[in-house]
Design goal:
By secondary structure, this protein is mostly helical. It has 17 helices and no strands.
């Protein structure tokens, strides 16, 4: 098994902080007056956070399972079911229970609501990522057939895929309707952003190619670190410029964000720039004091991703009870406390998994069940 690449692990931790930022931005909209600059920091600067998880996931997959080498698909799918599908189903049910308990709305347990919740990741706003990831895993034979061709000629193939990705995302988000008369077609269209892998094929294949051509990727990042930094800055400036241009045109912050989000052409380019830039930043000697927090964030990123909406919900409820509105200082504190509380919950989950492996498998896909010997 290939050794983990620390830079990619650190990207996972940085992305987790970005995801919490995005969801903090959503809570900031409940304030009496939205600070558009703080909202931009939380929602635009962090736009790479969810797509870059697909880059990291593909990198890990193809670092471990290289094309051309034998792959035991039965073992592969069993492992992915334990690490992703089982925790997804468990957390979906937990979030549904939490929703029913806090709102009194029990109808979600009946058909067709429960099927929609589980099929499209509707139990909590962050779970759709796992639905798409399951689809990516399910299509592993396709990716193993495609990646060698792309890796053989990465620049023309990735360039064409980038253009196709921007065109497809624009069509899906701006042209294709979200509603239809037929119930099932309406369901498929309305929730397509929660399960269509086609929205993220480019960034996934980028991660796979970078894993297959890792030595070349690392050399490129080291040789062109300054140019990559400029590319990142320009792509961020373009996305921010789009956001502020829409505000100047009369859009409110939420509507402007929906136009300048990660699936927009600017968002796709920004995600590409973030993948390259964060790797270039982290794949070099780092200050000793920075390594432990980065390692901590990376180690607990999956659990934090799963639990942070619970921390946010109860923190927001406490602020409401205390009569504290979402003014900028409160929003900043909300973000910091959410990260801290989520890390504590993640650490508690890790300890629980060590003490009770079955619980770890259910909640985070970690741990191993002890095999019982015959006759004991």
């Amino acid at each position: 098994m290939a050794e983990r690449v620390k830079a990619v692990e650190y990207i996972r931790g940085a992305a987790m902080l970005g995801v919490v930022g995005i969801h903090t931005g959503a809570y900031s909209l409940t304030g009496p007056e939205v600070n558009v600059h703080l909202f931009a920091l939380l929602e635009i600067f962090t736009r790479f956070s969810v797509p870059i998880f697909f880059f990291v996931s593909a990198f890990g997959l193809f670092r471990q399972h290289r094309p051309g080498e034998p792959l035991d698909y039965a073992a592969f799918y069993r492992r992915r079911a334990l690490t992703v599908l089982v925790p997804y189903l468990v957390w979906s049910l937990l979030y549904m229970w939490h929703y029913a308990a806090t709102t009194g709305e029990e109808h979600i347990w009946g058909a067709p609501h429960i099927y929609e919740f589980l099929l499209f990741g509707l139990a909590s706003y962050q779970l759709y990522f796992l639905v798409i990831l399951v689809w990516f895993y399910a299509l592993m034979p396709l990716w193993r057939a495609v990646v060698p061709a792309v890796a053989a000629r990465p620049l023309p193939w990735l360039g064409a895929l980038l253009a196709a990705q921007m065109a497809f995302n624009y069509w899906s988000c701006q042209v294709l309707p979200f509603r239809a008369d037929d119930y099932y077609v309406d369901l498929a269209l309305r929730h397509r952003l929660s399960y269509w892998v086609l929205h993220y094929v480019f960034v996934f294949l980028l991660g796979a190619v970078c894993a297959v051509r890792f030595d070349d990727f690392r050399a490129l990042a080291a040789s062109y670190r300054r140019a990559i930094g400029m590319f990142f800055a320009l792509s961020l400036a373009a996305l921010l410029g789009h956001y502020y241009w829409l505000l100047a045109g009369g859009y409110d912050p939420e509507r402007a964000l929906n136009a300048a989000q990660q699936l927009s052409p600017g968002g796709v380019v920004y995600t590409l720039a973030a993948c390259l830039y964060l790797f270039a930043v982290f794949d070099r000697p780092l200050p000793p004091g920075l390594v432990p927090p980065l390692a901590l964030l990376a180690r607990h990123s999956y659990a934090v991703y799963l639990v942070h909406p619970l921390a946010m919900f109860h923190l927001a409820k406490g602020l409401d009870t205390a009569g504290l509105a979402m003014a900028p200082p409160v929003v900043a504190g909300f973000y910091v406390v959410t990260v801290a509380a989520s890390l504590l919950l993640a650490a508690a989950l890790a300890r629980a998994a060590a003490a009770a492996p079955a619980l770890g498998l259910l909640l985070t896909g970690t741990g191993r069940l002890r095999k019982v010997k015959p006759g004991t």
